[in-house]
Amino acid sequence: MSLSLVLTLLGAIFLLLLFRYILTPLFLSPLAHIPAAHPTSVFTPLWISYHRRGGSQALPAITRAHSLYGPIIRLGPHELSVRSQSAIHKVYIEKGGFAKPKFWADEFMSYGVRNMVSMQGGIGSKEHAGRKRDLGNVYAKSVLLGSGVLSDVAARVLRGMDEVLERIVGEEDNADAEKTGSGVMEVYNFNGAVNADIASSYIYGTDGRTNFVGDVAKRNEYFEHHGTWLKGKHGHAESQKWLEEFGVQLCGPGVSALRDEEKGGADAVVYKQLHARGLRGNDMASETLDHFIAGAEAPRTTLTYLQWELSRNPTRQARLRTELRTLPLDPTTDIPNLKALDALPFLDAVLMETLRLYTPTPGPQHRITPPEGTTIHGIFIPGSTRISASLAILHHNAEVFPEPGVWRPERWGGGDKERESLEEMRKWFWVFSKGSRGCIGKDFTVIVMKLIVAKMYSKYETEVMEDGNMEQEDKFLAGPVGERLVLRFRAVK
Ligand code: HEM
């Protein structure tokens, strides 16, 4: 081959690459009109990949880019981030919302099979709609608030929680008590334990439930594997295996609950519903394990931040206690009526504000545009473009939530006249996402957290003894970096 032919060939290849990787993304791609988060984001995903190293969600980088370049930005050649109401409506709500990208859905699979959260879904997805139907109304608010089962299982677990608190306040030496003094306890895993025990009772039945409140070693073992798996740490595969084996054990007693049904047993609400719809084996284990994990982890984070804020705000803590003490307790269960509890305005405001400011899943909720593409902000976006909104960014909109970084429950009303525009705030409150893929457990987790707070704060006051590093991790499930909050509990007359 002559030298001139070689040079011509090389020149042609160079021009082709220039056209494909520089000119097209810069001028010809429909995405060319969208501001780039970083100058290189137009050509390569290197910038966003760099910020995502080590399992990070790149939330600070995405937040900064939005504040510089507006409501729709280009994170990579084929990836966008949005933060406007019209955009999130299109991505997550309209026609059931866009599908999840495969890599993202796969993250949440267990036993190699898909559960609800790991289904890709998308417009008209029969698989996802079918599983939603299978679950029936087990997590519907009206069912939960009127449910004797939830009251009963919660009352049992909360009795156990109160026994632990009574013991540590009573100065006895036990596995929960720190050696630093009376009433002092590390609460991060303890909060997870109380939530896990209530969730597992409702899902698998009281025979099958975890006893993390009573069994500190098992609790810590679980959260250790859980953290390793979620954060993709070294040992991730082994921890996933451990969790899957644990999930199978939890499923076992559900079968006996089914047998007991003839005797009128009302337990294992979720297991029984799915069993009646034909779920068996790994499909059952995968679906229920996901609910259990969700029921333990996200509220662990929320309760820990709620206690941290209340402990640093004695006036608000006292106001909450006064409100809680207006509720009569059921003499048999020793917990309040669920409907009355749910209606308490200041308790609701405290929880909403904590969920807003310390969103447990604050980062991008990934989706992919449908094959025919879509139009957002008047710009055509081709099919198969990755697109997401980050929940914490929505919660920091200063026009809707003035001083967004400040924990101020009063902004939600709570009986105060100074409340901000409630309707607008609710529109921007996306902690459970929205649309057909919104959280199915949201009413369950809200009522359970309210019960725990009511039981704890009507009887005890708390102050911070040690709060290590309470900054939120930049992870999919974002707990405090220090994974530790030590409180002192004191019984209040
Ligand atoms: C503070 C507590 C919780 C928070 C902040 C939370 C948040 C979320 C969010 C943001 C999503 C959407 C995820 C996505 O689009 O990929 C979601 C979905 C989901 N959540 Fe929750 N969740 C919580 C508690 C629970 C509980 C207790 C359950 C147990 C029943 C649960 C079960 C689910 C399921 C099954 C989905 C998937 C729904 C679907 O794909 O259609 N969550 N949750």
From TrEMBL:
Entry similarity comment: Belongs to the cytochrome P450 family.
GO MF, any single term: monooxygenase activity
Name of the molecule in the record: Cytochrome P450
UniProt xrefs under InterPro entries: Cyt_P450 (IPR001128), Cyt_P450_CS (IPR017972), Cyt_P450_E_grp-IV (IPR002403), Cyt_P450_sf (IPR036396), Cytochrome_P450_monoxygenase (IPR050121)
Keyword Heme: yes
Keyword field: Heme, Iron, Metal-binding, Monooxygenase, Oxidoreductase
Residues that coordinate or bind heme: C439
Highest taxon of the lineage: Eukaryota
Keyword Cell division: no
Names of required cofactors: heme
PROSITE patterns: CYTOCHROME_P450
Gene3D superfamilies in the record: Cytochrome P450
Organism: Melanomma pulvis-pyrius CBS 109.77
